[in-house]
Amino acid sequence: MKHRISIKYGTWPLPALAAIAVLLLAAACSGSGAKEQAMAPATQAPPATEAAPPTSAPAEKAEIPVVPIEMNDDGFKVAEVIPGGIVQFNIANAGSEPAAPSLIRIKEGHTRQELSDMVDTVNTNPGDFSTFNQLFNVASAIYGVEDLAPGATLSFYADLRTGDFALSDDNHPDRGLAYFMAHELTGKTEPETVMHIDMVDFAYTMPDVAQGKGLWEFANSGDQWHMAMVIPYNPDMTPEQVLSAFEEPEPSIPVLDGILPMSPGERVWVEVNLQPGQYEVICPLPDLAAVADGGEPMPHLLHGMQHMFTVND
Q1: Measured between alpha carbons, how far is 10 from 148 in angstroms, rounded to an integer?
Q2: Strand ranges, E, within the chain
Q3: Contact in structure between 228 and 259 (CB atoms under 8 Å)
Q4: Is the pLDDT of residue 194 over 60?
Q5: How many C-beta neighbours within 10 Å does residue 227 have?
Q6: Which of 180, 47, 44, 26 is nearest to 118 (CA)?
Q7: What pTM did the predictor assign?
Q8: Which ranges of the chain does DSSP label H, i.e. alpha helix?
């Protein structure tokens, strides 16, 4: 399925970049206490484990576990326990309205109740970066999309490892969170990709020439959250002008592909479909570390987090 980052994620006025806090987890999960879907009871997440060390290659490549998830007008339907490691998610929207599913990791040593309580605290203190930073101590954003139409299916791969996880529908926060666990490290096969993008503080490690159609791997090896907005490359526009363009009621720059905010240590694989041409990948998220030190939330793009690349025929 072709998926896009909606322009709505690029319309932050520069003085109000803190609003992404609400868009990411706070608003997405604001109804978490209302109706948690029928998963396991709130317990401490099992310790996250690292992938097994390399072994000799098997005669045939192992299959990647598939996790089906259904969304309807009541919430999510997902198994209480799923395979750990690298898995493929197929999220089908069987509801009557567009949905915005997001996958969230509850960090090791924290619980579902802590996540719910922290989200409530963030909602009570909108725009408070210190409170928002505390949320990242409890949970990690893995992957999500903003518009999954009724009848459509979202497919992607994620490196879960093991632990406790939550699903939210950003379009319908009143439906609450759905929880599941991954106890056993089952998926040890990596998907075949045509592109790898590593996000660090503050740069993208990626080729200058990319294959525009196929499975792209996105990894966050930095210490901060990052995202990847793929836009047409315009050498005549400065980073400040690019950000200003997204302040307009109808932004003049299309967001063609990429991923929404991802927390450090996460890794996903998504299908990308770009026509031949020149593109730029940017991260407009605010610098939360600077805010924690009493500074301004300068966008990562103004720190230099951008990369121009070419897609050939």
Answers
A1: 18
A2: 66-72, 75-77, 81-93, 101-106, 139-144, 153-159, 163-169, 178-187, 195-200, 203-205, 209-210, 213-220, 226-232, 257-262, 267-273, 277-282, 306-311
A3: yes
A4: yes
A5: 25
A6: 26
A7: 0.81
A8: 20-21, 112-124, 129-138, 239-245, 288-292
Cβ proximity of 164 and 112 under 8 Å:
yes
Q: Give the per-residue pLDDT at 291.
A: 74
Reduce the secondary structure of 184-222 to three states and give it as a string.
EEEECCCCCCCEEEEEECCEEECCCEECCEEEEEEEECC
> Hey, is 17 helix, strand or coil?
helix
Length of the chain (residues)? 313
pLDDT tens sequence across 300-311: 999 999 999 999
- Residue 51: Cβ-neighbour burial (10 angstroms; 0-12, 13-18, 19+): middle
Specify the pLDDT at position 24. Answer: 36
Confidence of residue 214 (pLDDT cuts 50, 70, 90): very high
Q: What is the DSSP letter of 24?
A: I
Residue in 223, 227, 205 with CA at minimum distance from that of residue 309: 205
Res. 290 pLDDT band, cuts 50 70 90: confident
Q: What are phi and psi of 137, to 5 degrees?
A: -75, -20
And the tokens for 38?
């029928």
Residue 169 three-state SS = strand
- Gap between the Cα atoms of 1 and 225, Å rounded: 25
Provide the angle, in degrees to the nearest 10, between the axes of the packed helices 112-124 and 129-138: 170
Domains of the chain: 22-40+65-187 (2.60.40.420), 192-311 (2.60.40.420)
